[in-house]
Amino acid sequence: MTSFIGRTEAIREIRRTIDSARLTTLTGAAGSGKSRLALQVASEGFDDFPYGVWLVELAPLSEAGTVPQAVAAVLGVHEDPGRSLLGTLADALRGRRLLLIIDNCEHLIGACADLAAALLRSSAHVHIFATSREALGILGEVTWPVPPMELPDLERLWALDAITAMQNLLESESVRLFVERARSVVSSFALSTDNAEAIANICRRIDGISLAIELAASRVRVLSVDQISRRLDDRFRLLTGGSRTAMPRHQALQAALDWSYELMVEAERGVLRRLAVFAGGFHLEATEAVAAGREAAPEDILEVLTRLVDKSLVLRDERAPIGRLRMLETVRQYGLRKLLDAREATAIRRAHRDWMLTFAERAVALLRGPQGDAWLEALETDDENLRAALRWSLDERDGAAAAVIVHRRGAAPAGRRRSAPARRQIVIRRKNA
């Protein structure tokens, strides 16, 4: 019912994947636009599937046993007495070249995996295209993670003249989506030099999550974009009011994340909410020290982290050294709420502060050694975590810990200085802190 924005290259890549793989699964965090992207891919048609492209929507279902029934109903296949419905489906599809789209598999993941494996084994010409928070986990599956929408590069934009900057800004998928959805509720809405920076900031602060952008844009009925941007500190209260006909979890950002949270086992929930104390990313050793608890011992953290990555709630940080992970800020803010609800915030923030103190002490001690450059890089990479630990120490009136953190952040010896641009960035961060 609304226009599809961006993702042009993604659609081309997904179509190539579907052509070559029997099972393709779009994965991504709640609200990332997996279902809409799948429908757009399908709507462009596949000439080489003579028996068509079929859509099975699982969101309304709650029982694993209803998955084969839903597929059979869409395909018009009737159950044979004395035979399993899955076997009947496999026979009905044998020899038919078609594409079966199974949307929203995450809450029935085991049943979807069983169905896909059975159909692919028995029907050599069937291709399956699934959407799920995590992969189905069967042989031959190709996963295609759906990234957030492209964000504007503010530093590059503001170096351009106003007209060129406006043109470049509208090339950003997230900005185009915001403007298009805002125009659907206020027909006169348009990108201008007056609101451009606020719109860009909104898109960046909500991580390019398509559902969040659409909910934010709907608020232009009563708020200016500057007001929307300022109110994002309380994004879960602000980002509500989606379509009345949408699934409940698509009517509010909090509901979308609640859906993912409730599908997790207790160990995953505990680690996710404790990871929220990290600012700017983390690595395995830090997670083992801070995020372990009664649900997950330190030796279990690697497995739990892997599952959170599989569920698209924790991401590999492509901008940082290998092995470093991060959370989208929206997911992190959600985790902090859950941490407060669990009454763990004080203990986990203290554990995070203690870990950062230990880390900073070790790093500074090794700065003059042969691996000094690597340790200086590690200190700079974790600067946001050090500042978070400093804020917590000041909140707790722990002046001794605060003094140690400040001293360690400024302890790089003269022989280990970064390049001039890097030094300027560090100075700016310190002034801001």
The tally of domains stands at 4
Structural category: alpha/beta
CATH class of the largest domain: Alpha Beta
Number of helices, counting only DSSP H or I runs of 4 residues or more:
22
**Topology order in helix (H) and strand (E) letters:** HEHEHHEHEEHHHHHHHHHHHEEHHHHHH
Report strand order across the widest sheet.
Answer: 2-3-4-1-5
What's the count of strands?
7
Cα separation of the termini = 46 Å
Q: What is the name of the CATH superfamily of the largest domain?
A: P-loop containing nucleotide triphosphate hydrolases
CATH architecture of the largest domain: 3-Layer(aba) Sandwich
Structure explained in plain terms:
By secondary structure, the chain is an alpha/beta fold. The protein folds into four domains: 138 residues, P-loop containing nucleotide triphosphate hydrolases (Rossmann fold, 3-Layer(aba) Sandwich), CATH 3.40.50.300; 98 residues, no CATH class; 80 residues, Arc Repressor Mutant, subunit A (Orthogonal Bundle); 85 residues, no CATH class. Helix content is 53%, strand content 7%. It contains 22 helices and seven strands. A hairpin with an 8-residue loop joins strand 6 and strand 7. It is globular, with a radius of gyration of 24 Å.
